[in-house]
Amino acid sequence: MITFPNAKINLGLNVVSRRADGYHNLETLFYPINLCDALEFVLAEQTSLRVVGSPIADDIEQNLVVRALRLLQRDFDLPELEIALLKIIPMGAGLGGGSADAAFMLKMLNENFQLKLSVEQLEKYATKLGSDCAFFIRNTPVFATGIGNEFTSVELSLKGYYLALVKPEIHVSTAEAYAHVACQRWNTPLLDVLAMPIEKWSDYLFNDFEISVFEVHPELAVIKQKLYKSGAVYAAMSGSGSAMYGIFKIKPKLNFPNHHVFMLDL
After folding, report:
1. What is the phi-psi region of residue 241: left when phi exceeds 0, alpha when psi lies from -120 to 50, beta otherwise?
2. Paired strand residues for 86
3. Residues marked as catalytic
4. Which of 53, 144, 145, 205 stands the most exposed, by the fewest C-beta atoms within 10 Å?
C-alpha cells in the first residue's frame, strides 16, 4: 500500500510566551501544500525501513514512521512490515515532513488493516508522536495554539496563487531557533491579520523566529528579499526554518543557484 504525505507551511508564527514546563505558547496557521513524500509498506517477517533521498539513523526504531507502527502495535495485532520512504520534503526545513510521514503512516495502517479508528482517535495517537503531527490527520488549514498542538479549523484558501519554496543547504534546529527567540504577543492578532487582503500581510504578518535565525544565517534574509523582488505578495520563513517561501499571483521565473527550489500551485 502506498500513500503520499504532504508538507505544510506556517502563515505567521507568534511565539507568545515561555511556559513553566520549558515549552513555548505560540500562535500560527498551518496550511497544507502539495509537496509530497512517498510512503509504502508490504508484509514482512521483520520490520525494516529503507529511506531514499535522506540519511537515516542506525536505529530505525527512532524513525517517526516506525514509531507510528509500534504505537498502533501496542493496541492492535499488526504484522511486521517492510517500509519504503522516498523523501522529497526537505528535512529541518520547517515544513513538517517527518510529522506528515508519521501521520500518514497511522492513516494508512488504519485503512489497510481496517482498524476502524475515528479521526479523533487517530489524532490522539498522532499527538503522542509530535506536537504538529495531528494536523496531518485532517490535513486542512488550522489555527494552532498551545505548543502547536491545539487546533481550530479556519476557512482560508490560497487557491489560484503560486508558492515558491527555497531550501538552502542550511539546517536550523528547533532548539537553536527557540533558544534566542523573543516572546511577545502581537498588537494585531494573527487571525485578524490573515483576514486582511494578502497584499497587506507583509506589513503585519511575521514569523518571530526570523529575527534571531536571520542573525545567525543572514543568507535566509537575502532569499526573502529576493523573493519579494521577484514579485512575491508575501514571503517568510516556514516554522523554525530553514525553508523560505514566497506567494505569487503570477508564476515567477526564479534564479536561486545552489538551492533546492520547488514551484507549487496552491
Report:
1. left
2. 38, 52
3. 8, 132
4. 53
